[in-house]
Design brief:
- This protein has 16 helices and 7 strands.
- The longest helix has about 40 residues.
- It is about 60% helix and about 5% strand.
- It has one domain: Up-down Bundle (Amino acid/polyamine transporter I).
- The protein is mainly alpha-helical.
- It is globular.
- The termini are far apart.
Length: about 550
């Protein structure tokens, strides 16, 4: 009887057909960028029955070593976790990098404006309040990563998996809609912020050449298109575990532009001969009493947006290596590090921006042109913002990409267009029978992710209001995703009795944050309506 190796119908290789017969090349998926070919025959396995050899499979020795090194295990150890998935390699530091990439985003640049609306007392106090709430609810959510025992319980791979495991009914559907709607909103917000930073580079050079009196009006539309094209390319990275390098680069960039903004603020304070601002924020007279109320509420939304990352916390936690220690313990440490670092930066950047400009603090510290010189330093800072937002866009959108692709595969499991991967050679060194570098191209992934980026880019062109959009996104996403669902899941997970002291405290926290969310959303909507009165789609310049 002849035995034939089972072929996976969802995988087509045009680089090395024999590779599709081997499980080792599945694990090579995470390290394709480092495998440049190797000699064959080092690891061989004979296939057959009853002593009759029907075929012989040989695996590249160098490739085996690369996989072992990449995953942090010896050649003899298992390459898979206990649930059959590839071993995770993340640590507290990589998780912190992911969080910092997601948290220290465009929101940091609006904090000077936010504190200007609230003043020296309420501004920093609100920032500390949001940092505490974010840390506490993130710790609650981290405990829901596994159902049951924190080390051996069933893993929940996404935020929605955790909701499904702990809640039921309409709550699951509402959570799914809010999470993915918020991701779409964040993608739009990041596209707006990136385009404004690219535009700011052009304007800074214009001001340097033409003088500060020249308006240097430029449309942001071409820059949104440029950012969209870049995101179409990076969106083809298949999954979260392969973008650690992008997150680390983006985190470095976030520190770069935050430090530059901080330094320029300090220089401006020195040049002013003192600190500007007041205890109660922007004065009545510069704005009407009603505008003061709306602006203060919008400031709450801006600060909430600056701390928002809970909707991708479970996905980040799913990159942490298997216990011991448990993923929840590692994630709590990563949350402490990242929230502490971001709060320090937020305090420094926000307070320095307000101290430098007082009531006139711009909505975006590095693009509102409170600073004109040195123009080259502004260019560096804004370029760093763009690089950071390229990475942050992917960190946020990967869960949505994965959700839609998983749903499509379950809905149409036999569709060639959706399920088949095609190996595309990335170099010519592999030859016809070698082990050259290949990229797994999936046609559905290519079209769906590209269409998503195009759609968010078009919407960004229609609503290029940085501060108002940021405030609205922060308000809408803060209470349900950062507070309500983590609190409800934690109560179920830990079986906290109804009306117990702990249950009442958690519910009071949730209700207080709901009130903040409603008020902040109202303030941001008022701002957007005001902007729309003078805005002309695709025509307004800055």
């Amino acid at each position: 009887m002849t035995h034939h190796t089972k072929f996976n119908p969802n995988y087509i290789s045009i680089c090395n057909p024999a590779s599709s017969l081997s499980l080792i090349f599945t694990s090579l998926f995470l390290s394709w960028k480092r495998v440049r070919g190797s000699r064959r025959g080092d690891f061989c396995k004979e296939m057959g029955e009853n002593g009759v050899v029907a075929s012989k499979l040989c695996y590249p020795a160098a490739a085996m070593e690369v996989v072992a090194a990449e995953l942090g295990h010896t050649a003899g150890s298992k390459l898979y976790d206990d649930d059959g998935r590839l071993k995770r390699t993340g640590t507290m530091w990589t998780a912190s990098a992911h969080i910092i990439t997601a948290v220290i985003g465009s929101g940091v640049l609006s904090l000077g404006w936010a504190i200007a609306q609230l003043g020296w007392v309420a501004g920093p106090a609100v920032m500390l309040l949001f940092s505490f709430v974010t840390y506490y609810t993130s710790a609650l959510l981290a405990d829901c990563y596994r159902s049951g025992d924190e080390s051996t319980g069933k893993r929940n791979y996404t935020y929605m998996d955790a909701v499904n495991a702990n809640l039921s009914g309409i709550k699951v559907q509402v959570c799914g809609f809010l999470q993915y709607a918020n991701i779409v909103g964040v993608a739009i917000g990041y596209t707006i912020a990136a385009s404004i930073s690219m535009l700011a580079i052009k304007r800074a050079n214009c001001f340097h050449v033409e003088g500060h009196g020249d308006p240097c009006n430029i449309s942001s539309t071409p820059y949104m298109i440029i950012f969209g094209v870049a995101e179409i390319f990076f969106s083809q990275i298949p999954d979260f575990d392969q973008i650690s390098w992008l997150s680390i680069l983006a985190a470095v960039m976030s520190f770069t532009y935050s430090t530059i903004g901080l330094g320029l603020g300090v220089v401006q304070v020195v040049a002013n001969g003192g600190v500007k601002g007041s205890l109660t924020g922007i004065s009545i007279g510069m704005v009407t009493p009603m505008d003061k109320v709306w602006r203060s509420l919008q400031a709450f939304g801006d600060i909430a947006f600056a701390y928002s990352y809970s909707l991708i916390l479970i996905e980040i936690q799913d990159t942490i290596r298997a216990p011991p220690p448990s993923e929840s313990r590692v994630m709590r440490r990563a949350t402490v590090v990242s929230v502490a670092v971001t709060t320090l930066f937020y305090m420094l950047c926000g307070c320095t921006g307000y101290a430098a400009f007082g009531d006139a603090a711009p909505g975006n510290l590095l693009t509102g042109f409170g600073f004109y010189e040195p123009f080259w330093l502004l260019d560096v800072a804004n370029a760093a913002i763009v690089v950071h937002l390229v990475g942050a866009y992917q960190v946020y959108c990967q869960p949505l990409f994965a959700f839609v692709e998983k749903w499509a595969q379950q809905r149409w499991p036999k569709s060639w267009y959706i399920t088949k991967d095609i190996d595309v050679p990335l170099s010519l060194s592999g030859g016809g029978g070698g082990g050259g570098r290949c990229y797994k191209l999936n046609l559905f992934r290519l079209t769906w992710r590209s269409a998503f980026v195009v759609a968010t880019t078009v919407v960004s062109m229609l609503l290029p209001f940085f501060n108002d959009v940021v405030g609205f996104l922060g308000a809408v996403g803060f209470w349900p995703l950062t507070v309500y669902f983590p609190v409800e899941m934690y109560i179920v997970q830990k079986r906290i009795p109804r009306w117990s002291t702990r249950w009442v405290c958690l519910q009071l926290l949730s209700l207080a944050c709901l009130a903040i969310t409603v008020a902040s959303a109202a303030g941001s909507i008022a701002g957007i309506l005001s902007d729309l009165k003078v805005y002309k789609p695709f025509a307004t310049t800055y």
